[in-house]
Structure formats: structure tokens, C-alpha cells
Design brief:
The structure is a single chain. This protein has one domain: Alpha-Beta Horseshoe (pyruvate-formate lyase- activating enzyme). Helix content is 42%, strand content 15%. The protein has helices at 18-22, 45-49, 53-58, 74-84, 102-105, 109-118, 138-143, 161-167, 174-186, 206-218, 235-245, 249-258, 261-282, 299-307, and strands spanning 4-7, 14-16, 28-30, 33-35, 67-70, 90-93, 124-129, 148-152, 190-191, 193-195, 224-226, 288-292, 312-314. The chain has a 6-stranded mixed sheet with strand order 2-3-6-7-8-9. A 4-stranded parallel sheet has the order 10-11-12-13, covered by helices on one side. Strand 10 (193-195), helix 10 and strand 11 (224-226) form a beta-alpha-beta unit.
Length: 318
């Protein structure tokens, strides 16, 4: 089904992002829309932005699929803010939507934002995308190689592309994302790994985690970020239903299981250990950034993780 593309005017260009600063990702953020055309079924953005006026004004369900909401004028606001803001630092492009998603590509939003930011001294950029089209901007990035970190979200090993393309219908294939990151490393660009989310039954097996970490280590990434799937909103239910529809019963049952609080907690506990073990065997554990909100952990699992929380970034309150 074709993706409906909406244009909607947003406010602001570059914003402070305290939450992503806690995650050690960036101090500033740019976002070019409120609904990404990659249309990942597990996405929790709808839960975070469900009250945004764009959904009401455009008549779209914040938890729905098959559409994207983008603001093509974002680079102009970014250019203005990049000049205006005096205290500068690391900026993530993007934190909510993807500046290289299909609807953003139509307007060259990723490239235009990069050009605007990098034209001003003092800014550095952390790119995060699920689209291999970012390689079209490697020449620009190479001109500013010390100021840009390239990251492509790796959400499974290539042999699980069959299941992943059900859940990430408009994103680049896992293989293409890996090839783009490999090209970035070969060109001497700064890279980092984002293993997120590592879904149960698809990407949380210790052997799979080790293969992803090994790939990242071989690309000489500066750090590895990892995260479990966010259970907020109806995303897990959407994943379960889609996997069932396409005949992936085992995977659907694994996702259904973690929709229950104690099982999600146990899944996270195992994922933390698998990721730590893989990183320790391939590189310095100090490079791991496992992002974890503990509020949904059982007291037993939280206590077990805290016995060895190397690389874990505890988020949220407390």
C-alpha cells in the first residue's frame, strides 16, 4: 500500500535534548516531522506524540500506519538556529523521525540539514538512520569527517531480513544498512553502532547479538548503543499481529510473551547479559551504551542487572 505523505509546518529547528544527553547521544536534536515513512510497527513515537496537533489537523491516527508527516522547510529553521545558538555541541539528526526516510529524501532534508549545521563552526552531528540512502551524502560528510558520526540502526542479522521487512516495511534492508556502514568505515568516516531495538524471537539470541557486535567491532565503531524494544503503546501488538498474519508463529509468540510485564523484564535481563558478553569478547566494554529504563523491571531482574551493570545507562527517575 502506498504511503500517504503529509506536509505539516513545525516550530523550531535545533532544540536542546536533556534526555538524549543522559543517553550520551547528543545535547541537541533536529526533527523534520512527527511520523516517519519507514513505518516500523514497533515504533513508540505515536505514544510519545499522540497529542500533537498534526494528527488531529490531518485526520490521522497517531498509532496508525501507511502515512508520513514531514516538514520540508525544516532545513531553513535549522540554518537559522545553527547561526543563532552560541553554545554549541553534539546534535543528533534525528531523535524522533528519520531524515533519510523516503518522504524526507524527496526534499533532500537530511543533506540540507547537514549542510546548514556544518556551515557553522562548533557543531558536530550524530546521524541515525535506517536508510542506506545516507551514503549519497558521504562526500559532504567526508569534508567534515571530524565533526560527523555516522550510524545506521541494525535491528537484526541479515538472515532475519524476512521477518524484519514485515516490521520495518519501508526501511533499507539489514544488508544494505551494513554495507553503508562498511563503506563509511572504509572511507575513514567516524562511525558508531545502534543495535535498537533487538526484538525477542528475532534478534535477542546470544549468537545473533554476538554477530551484530562483531560486525560493529570490525567496522571500528567509536561506541555501541543497544536497547530493548519499547513496550509503550500498541507497537508490540502490531508486531505480533503482522508476524502472525505472515506465518511467523514462533516470532509472534515471542513478541506476545514480552507484552506481559514480568516476561519483558526477563527478556531485558537476558539481553543486557548477551550484549555485555559480546562486547567484552570483541572490544572494550567501556564502548557499550545499553540504554535502560528500569521502571518496568522486576525488583529481582533489576537487582541482578545491577550486580554487573558495565555499559548500562540507567534512565528515567531515580
Amino acid at each position: 500500500m502506498a504511503t500517504r505523505r503529509h506536509h505539516y509546518p513545525l516550530k523550531g529547528g535545533i532544540n536542546r535534548t536533556p534526555e538524549f544527553e543522559k543517553k550520551k547521544l547528543a545535547s541537541f536534536a533536529v526533527n523534520c516531522g512527527v511520523k516517519c515513512g519507514h513505518d516500523c510497527l514497533y515504533c513508540s513515537t505515536g505514544a510519545m506524540l499522540r497529542m500533537h496537533a498534526a494528527f488531529r489537523d490531518l485526520g490521522e491516527d497517531p498509532f496508525g500506519h501507511g502515512y508520513a508527516i514531514v516538514d520540508p522547510s525544516t532545513p531553513e529553521r535549522v540554518a537559522s538556529d545553527a547561526k543563532r545558538i552560541r553554545k554549541r555541541g553534539m546534535l543528533q539528526l534525528c531523535t524522533i523521525v528519520d531524515a533519510w526516510a523516503p518522504e524526507a529524501q524527496r526534499h533532500g532534508i537530511g543533506q540540507r540539514c547537514l549542510e546548514a549545521i556544518l556551515s557553522q563552526p562548533g557543531w558536530s552531528v550524530r546521524i541515525l538512520t535506517k536508510n542506506a540512502a545516507v551514503r549519497d551524502d558521504f562526500d559532504l560528510i567526508e569534508e567534515h569527517r571530524d565533526r560527523v558520526l555516522v550510524g545506521l540502526s541494525i535491528t537484526a542479522t541479515p538472515d532475519r531480513q524476512d521477518a524484519i521487512e514485515i516490521l520495518e516495511p519501508n526501511a533499507s534492508s539489514i544488508q544494505d544498512r551494513m554495507l553503508a556502514l562498511e563503506e563509511a568505515a572504509a572511507r575513514g568516516l567516524r562511525t558508531y553502532a545502534m543495535l535498537c531495538p533487538l526484538l525477542p524471537g528475532i534478534a535477542d539470541d546470544p549468537e545473533q547479538v554476538d554477530r551484530m557486535v562483531r560486525f560493529a567491532a570490525d567496522r571500528r565503531v567509536e561506541d555501541i548503543f543497544a536497547e530493548p524494544v519499547n513496550p509503550r503503546g500498541p507497537g508490540l501488538r502490531h508486531c505480533q499481529e503482522a508476524l502472525e498474519l505472515w506465518g511467523y508463529g514462533d516470532e509472534a509468540r515471542a513478541v506476545e510473551k514480552v507484552r506481559q510485564w514480568p516476561h519483558w523484564s526477563h527478556y531485558v535481563r537476558g539481553l543486557v547479559r548477551s550484549t555485555q558478553d559480546a562486547v567484552r569478547s570483541r572490544m572494550d566494554i567501556a564502548k557499550l551504551r545499553f540504554l535502560l529504563y528500569p521502571s518496568r523491571l522486576t525488583s529481582e531482574d533489576a537487582a541482578e542487572i545491577r550486580k554487573d551493570d558495565a555499559g548500562v545507562i540507567w534512565l528515567g527517575k531515580g
